[in-house]
């Protein structure tokens, strides 16, 4: 996709969006509500006509200022949020819908049902399936004609948390088996980080960062991306060479972070970089409060004296081994980001 823009009257839904995907990759388009994710997906599918830009799929131009290929000619599979299935058709008929007539049809339906783990459901009607089963069938239907690209628009949004996690793994596996290239829209950072090969973080119609999940998480482009993709511990600091001086000590800065000496900066640390130890290890901190959540707990800490102090909260597994008033040692592991 090159320089794609789309406006609805005065609303700029997409501004100058460009990116490239390799065959077989999964891209997650991640961003808050209204940032243009669905418009991007619908433009690729051919349901929206952009104002400017070019879209190529497998080397073929499907949209430019001179070309507009109709959705059915783009060889794309589309899995919408929910309600994707034809209610009056059985599971088998739904999957066979886009396939050419012939003997191989039934074979392909069975193959697709096996791929999504739904053998034996051929005769069921959509209303006789759970939400998760419906989404599996919707994916099977989208994959049946062997499209070059699969588009998934928040495919798990209607499902509860447990089912989501299971379906995530299964869908990822099914896509890997068919080697399909896919683009999934989501506003769930966990979904994007766990499923995608690359993530495009969108804001106000623009892609603010396009990178692999690990890069997005460890070196987010700005503070908004940092807080959008995970929990953060933020403290004030001052840059000094490759380090930043802050109440948590002199911390090495990730080399990608652009900085200059003496500048005041916000230091971004991921909570799992912080560990608690004996009072003589690391930075001395006082426990202000602990909050127990079952599988983990939050420990709120006061660090430093009046001029150079801050409070941070860190997560520890299970019940905290410390209590209010304890003096503990806090260690920061790895390099930190600065903004
Ligand atoms: P969500 O996560 O809530 O589905 P989104 O990121 O998919 O949001 P889009 O649906 O692409 O966002 O919308 C992008 C912007 O374009 C929004 O400001 C929206 O109000 C506007 N918009 C979308 N469709 C239309 C339309 N048909 N007419 C006018 N404005 C529209």
TrEMBL record:
Catalytic activity line of the entry: a quaternary ammonium(out) + ATP + H2O = a quaternary ammonium(in) + ADP + phosphate + H(+)
Gene Ontology CC terms, in alphabetical order: ATP-binding cassette (ABC) transporter complex
Molecular function in Gene Ontology: ABC-type ferric iron transporter activity; ABC-type quaternary ammonium compound transporting activity; ATP binding; ATP hydrolysis activity
EC number per UniProt: 7.6.2.9
Keywords: ATP-binding, Cell inner membrane, Cell membrane, Ion transport, Iron, Iron transport, Membrane, Nucleotide-binding, Translocase, Transport
Alphabetized SMART domains for the sequence: AAA (SM00382)
Coiled coil start-end: none
Signal sequence, start to end: none
Top-level taxon of origin: Bacteria
Xref: InterPro entries: AAA+_ATPase (IPR003593), ABC_SmlMolc_Importer (IPR050093), ABC_transporter-like_ATP-bd (IPR003439), ABC_transporter-like_CS (IPR017871), ABC_transpr_FbpC (IPR015853), Mo/tungstate-bd_C_term_dom (IPR008995), NA-bd_OB-fold (IPR012340), P-loop_NTPase (IPR027417)
Sequence ranges assigned to domain ABC transporter in this UniProt record: 1-229
Subunit structure: The complex is composed of two ATP-binding proteins (OpuCA), two transmembrane proteins (OpuCB and OpuCD) and a solute-binding protein (OpuCC).
Annotated protein name in UniProt: Carnitine transport ATP-binding protein OpuCA
Lineage summary: Bacteria, Bacillati, Bacillota, Bacilli, Bacillales
């Amino acid at each position: 996709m090159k320089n794609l823009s789309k406006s609805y009257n005065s609303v700029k839904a997409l501004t100058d969006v460009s990116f490239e995907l390799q065959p077989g990759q999964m891209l997650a388009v991640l961003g808050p509500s209204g940032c243009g994710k669905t418009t991007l997906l619908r433009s690729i599918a051919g349901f929206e006509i952009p104002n400017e830009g070019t879209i190529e799929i497998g080397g073929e131009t499907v949209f430019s200022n001179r070309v507009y290929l109709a959705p059915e000619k783009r060889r794309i599979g589309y899995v919408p949020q929910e309600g994707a299935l034809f209610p009056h058709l059985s599971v088998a008929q739904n999957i066979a819908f886009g396939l050419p007539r012939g003997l191989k049809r039934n074979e392909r339906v069975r193959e697709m049902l096996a791929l999504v783990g739904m053998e034996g459901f051929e005769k069921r009607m959509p209303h006789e399936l759970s939400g998760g089963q419906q989404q599996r069938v919707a994916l099977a239907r989208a994959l049946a004609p062997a499209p070059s690209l699969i588009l998934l628009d928040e495919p798990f949004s209607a499902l509860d948390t447990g089912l989501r996690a299971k379906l995530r793994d299964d869908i990822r596996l099914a896509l890997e088996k068919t080697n399909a290239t896919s683009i999934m829209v989501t506003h769930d950072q966990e979904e994007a980080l766990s499923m995608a090969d690359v993530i495009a973080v969108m804001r106000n119609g623009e892609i603010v960062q396009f990178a692999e999940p690990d890069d997005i998480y460890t070196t987010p482009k700005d503070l908004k991306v940092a807080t959008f993709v995970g929990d953060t511990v933020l403290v004030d600091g001052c840059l000094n060479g490759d380090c930043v001086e802050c109440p948590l000590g002199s911390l090495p800065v990730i080399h990608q972070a652009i900085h200059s000496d003496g500048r005041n900066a916000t230091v971004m640390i991921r909570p799992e970089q912080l560990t608690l130890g004996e009072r003589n290890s690391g930075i001395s901190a006082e426990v202000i409060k602990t909050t127990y959540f079952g599988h983990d707990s939050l420990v709120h800490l006061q660090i430093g004296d009046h001029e150079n102090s801050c409070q941070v909260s860190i997560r520890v597994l299970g019940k905290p081994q410390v209590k209010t008033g304890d003096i503990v040692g806090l260690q920061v592991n790895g390099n930190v980001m600065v903004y």
